[in-house]
Amino acid sequence: MTIKSILIANRGEIAVRIIRAAKELGIRTIQVYSDADSDALAVKMADEAVNIGPPQAAKSYLNADAILTAAKATGADAIHPGYGFFSENADFADAVKNAGMTFIGPDAETIRVMGDKVAARKTAAAAGVPTVPGSPGRIDDMEEARDIAVQTGFPVMIKAAAGGGGRGIRIVANLEEFDQMAPQASAEAQAAFGDGGLYIEKVIEGARHIEVQVLGDGERAVHFFERDCSLQRRRQKVWEEAPASALKEEVRQNLCLSAVSLAEAVQYRGAGTVEYLYDEVTGEYYFIEMNTRIQVEHPVTEMITGVDLMREMISVAGGERLSVEQKDILIRGHAIEVRLNAEDAAQNFMPHPGTVSGLTIPGGPGVRFDGSIYAGYSIPPYYDSLLGKLLVWDETRGQAIDRLKRALDELQIDGVKTTKPLFQVLTTVDDVRNGAFDTSWLENWLGNNIDQIKAQEGSQS
Ligand code: ADP
Ligand code: ADP
Ligand code: MG
């Protein structure tokens, strides 16, 4: 391994996760932090820590100069971008390389081709992977865009080429709405992502979100099967599991192999995820995007395959070949992750920063907690509200749900409101237990059942 030290250009639970992997590999860790994060767990765990500026991400975690200066000053060999922030920023990947360091992720060129959602759709189509019907490229001309929307058939989605994190997506029911929303969507995408580019997709109703984990070394790519991330709120995942029980074995094979073909078509190096919508009725799947980074929910896959994806992504970035062969990657049992956010589920998921006055982390067989909190930790209000992820593994899906319920009951996060009560209730809901949900199920269910969550929340304080 040529990488002897890694600077972590991220925060929160993913920074902790990267430090854990690096320590196991004997790699020195350097954690950057903003003024709001001086007490962060990752800062305490890393071998060294460097302040890179004020709380606002634009001035710290998105300040390339400050990060590169810290990396040079501490003699870092490599920079790990985690997810969000600079993880899918090709210019940053180039800047790291030009500074003589390794960017732990794909080449800048790969990020340019797959990180832009429009370019990725074209690459997928060219690799023979089915995409959602819609505009072939970016919408440049509004007249042409209207024609495409009509041909595609309403309802359509207007999406931002540079979108992510569930943002920049609008559903449009007819031409009138289209005329109204397209300019708004473009202005918003420009403000949020610095790129006003839009494209159109048909709305695939009743679909599941199924994604395939891949890993490549630039020559060869393998898949680690799929995850079902259909339980979403505002198009953000809240509960993820693997394998996807909705998939028939034959579809699973085709889907996973299509992700490998796509990764090999771009000589993919690093960890990545190919996301699809799956229509259970027709058995069709459609590519929606590729995330050219490690994902929040990667541990679900680690639990069913026994492979440490973080360690693998660091090794391949260091120039090693993949350590695994496709035939040796097997699914064992079932794993589920729930995202514990500092949010008040009963108050429309309003962010709820504050101080964690007490903490009990569950244990026992098949339980994993990837978090960034400790008793006495004050959650800063500046960043996303993910505090940690609770994961469980068991032989069957039903047993995994029972284990999740048990582990959630053990978990105590005092002093702040979290999404725990939502998951406690969900483990008892028939549709969830039966795996009978699509990407809009949770939102519909929440519309009618918020009282149950309030009651659950009330019963523990
Ligand atoms: P995953 O696909 O790994 O589940 P998400 O899509 O939820 O990841 O995004 C992971 C993190 O990155 C979240 O904190 C999200 O807010 C952030 N994120 C994703 N894409 C963007 C983007 N384009 N701009 C800013 N933040 C983003
Ligand atoms: P992001 O980059 O924000 O992750 P995605 O394109 O991955 O955006 O879509 C996020 C979610 O929005 C999907 O998981 C799915 O629930 C929903 N979605 C996206 N595209 C479509 C579509 N064409 N039809 C129906 N739902 C969609
Ligand atoms: Mg996505």
CATH fold-type name of the largest domain: D-amino Acid Aminotransferase, Chain A, domain 1
CATH architecture of the largest domain: 2-Layer Sandwich
Q: Look at the structure and name the CATH superfamily of the largest domain.
A: ATP-grasp fold, B domain
Mean pLDDT across all amino acids: 96
- In which range does the helix fraction lie? 25-40%
Question: Count the strands?
Answer: 20
- The fraction of residues in strands falls at 25-35%
Note poorly predicted spans. none
Largest sheet: 8 strands, antiparallel
CATH class group of the largest domain: Alpha Beta
Broad structural category: alpha+beta
Strand neighbour order, sheet with most strands: 13-12-9-10-11-14-19-18
Q: How many DSSP H or I helices?
A: 15
Shape: globular
How far apart, in Å, are the first and last alpha carbons? 50 Å
Radius of gyration: 21 Å
In brief, what are we looking at here?
Helices cover 36% and strands 27% of the residues. By secondary structure, the protein is of the alpha+beta class.
